[in-house]
């Protein structure tokens, strides 16, 4: 038997989250059964657990879009009992039972072998949010963005994507500007590597279609007016990697930055990213992200406290990452 968070839909249409005891016979089909050591809370998990958005495709559902642990049994030759593995995306926690449980059974094609130099705790202190941050950094580098081009803006800077993106970019030698609505967290952001703090309010309202060139590139996890203003403020030939919608999924912008300044807007998807790119991202995270930095950027909760933490995350009261210890 193991504990799991199980989401169900109430008669009034609301989402109910409860901690239940399950056994391996309850798990969905898959080639590999994993003992989950740690999971984490990402923005999408917060939406699923609270029911604030229709993330969950069917009920009952075990949420948790990622997890890390070790293989218990496998019918796939690529994995054997004891292997350390992690998983992000692929609809886990949405249409297939996810990581907020003591065990998971999934397709072998979805699993990533644990990178050398990383353990389950650190993998989930990074989680989908940090993995997405690395995909954004890779997208900028694929476009040739280099530190000499000028400062890079990171929006949603106190969130999971934002904090890891700041640390990664600063470690690569970029001058990082961090946009946040929680200016009281400025010292924490500067400790991660931010050189300048930008008040979120200066980007969150409707703005001009073309504005002063301020940044060579940006990583945006906010969307809506913030993304529109960011694009309008990127230097000629610059790049924006967009991966989130914390402010909204609308994009109230004009084509001006794209046809007058040659700005590129790159969408970054973490859910269905090809395995080859995932492996590169996780190897780079293991090599480039200081693990002691993760400890300062991470809060750990047990499964019983995960629902409350998810609500706090959506309310903008969480700094950095929330790690869920399945053994707690």
Q: Overall pLDDT, averaged?
A: 95
* Helix share, percent: 25-40%
CATH C-level name of the largest domain: Alpha Beta
In CATH, the homologous superfamily of the largest domain goes by the name Medium-chain alcohol dehydrogenases, catalytic domain
SSE-based structural type: alpha/beta
CATH architecture of the largest domain: Alpha-Beta Complex
What distance separates the N and C termini? 15 Å
Radius of gyration: 20 Å
Overall 3D geometry?
A: globular
SSE arrangement, N to C: EEEHEEEEHEHEHEHEHEHEHHEHE
Q: What is the CATH topology descriptor of the largest domain?
A: Quinone Oxidoreductase, Chain A, domain 1
List low-pLDDT spans: none
The major pleated sheet works out as: 7 strands, mixed
Overview of the molecule:
The protein is of the alpha/beta class and 328 residues long. The chain contains ten helices and 15 strands. The chain has helices at residues 43-50, 120-142, 160-171, 186-192, 201-204, 224-232, 256-260, 275-288, 291-296, 306-314, and strands at 2-9, 15-22, 32-41, 66-74, 84-88, 103-106, 112-113, 152-154, 176-180, 194-199, 215-220, 234-242, 264-267, 298-302, 321-325. Strands 3, 4, 5, 6, 7, 14 and 15 form a seven-stranded mixed beta sheet that branches. Strands 10-9-8-11-12-13 form a six-stranded parallel beta sheet, with helices on both faces. It has a two-stranded antiparallel ribbon with strand order 1-2. A hairpin with a 5-residue loop joins strand 1 and strand 2 (15-22). It starts with a strand and ends with a strand.
Write the layout of secondary structure elements.
Layout: E1 2-9, E2 15-22, E3 32-41, H1 43-50, E4 66-74, E5 84-88, E6 103-106, E7 112-113, H2 120-142, E8 152-154, H3 160-171, E9 176-180, H4 186-192, E10 194-199, H5 201-204, E11 215-220, H6 224-232, E12 234-242, H7 256-260, E13 264-267, H8 275-288, H9 291-296, E14 298-302, H10 306-314, E15 321-325
Parallel strand pairs: 8-9, 8-11, 9-10, 11-12, 12-13, 14-15
Antiparallel strand pairs: 1-2, 3-4, 3-6, 3-15, 4-5, 5-7
Helix pairs in contact: 1-10, 2-3, 2-8
């Amino acid at each position: 038997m193991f504990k799991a968070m199980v989401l169900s839909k109430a008669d009034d249409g609301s989402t109910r989250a409860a901690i239940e005891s399950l056994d391996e016979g309850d798990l969905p089909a898959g080639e590999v059964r994993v003992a989950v050591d740690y999971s984490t809370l990402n923005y999408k998990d917060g939406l699923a657990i609270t029911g604030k958005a229709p993330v969950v495709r069917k009920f009952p559902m075990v949420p948790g879009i990622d997890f890390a642990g070790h293989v218990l049994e496998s019918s796939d030759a690529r994995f054997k009992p004891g292997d350390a593995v992690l998983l992000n995306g692929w609809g886990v926690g949405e249409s297939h039972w996810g990581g907020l449980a003591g065990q998971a059974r999934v397709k072998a094609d979805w699993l990533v072998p644990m990178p050398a130099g990383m353990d389950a705790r650190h993998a989930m202190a990074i989680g989908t949010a940090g993995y997405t941050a690395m995909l954004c950094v890779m997208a900028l580098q694929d476009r040739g963005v280099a530190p000499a081009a000028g400062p890079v803006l990171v929006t949603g800077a106190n969130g999971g994507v934002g904090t890891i993106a700041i640390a990664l970019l600063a470690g690569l030698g970029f001058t990082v500007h961090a946009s946040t609505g929680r200016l009281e967290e400025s010292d924490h952001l500067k400790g991660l590597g931010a050189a300048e703090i930008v008040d979120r309010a200066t980007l969150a309202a409707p703005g001009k279609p073309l504005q002063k060139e301020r940044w060579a590139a940006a990583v945006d996890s906010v969307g809506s007016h913030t993304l529109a203003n960011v694009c309008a403020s990127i230097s000629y030939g610059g790049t924006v990697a967009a991966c989130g919608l914390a402010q909204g999924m609308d994009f109230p912008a004009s084509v001006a930055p794209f046809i007058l300044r040659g700005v590129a807007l790159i969408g970054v998807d973490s859910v269905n990213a090809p395995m080859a790119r995932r492996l590169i991202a996780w190897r780079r995270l293991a090599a480039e992200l200081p693990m002691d930095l993760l400890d300062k950027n991470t809060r750990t909760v047990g499964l019983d406290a995960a629902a409350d933490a998810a609500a706090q995350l959506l309310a903008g009261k969480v700094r950095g990452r929330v790690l869920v210890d399945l053994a707690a």
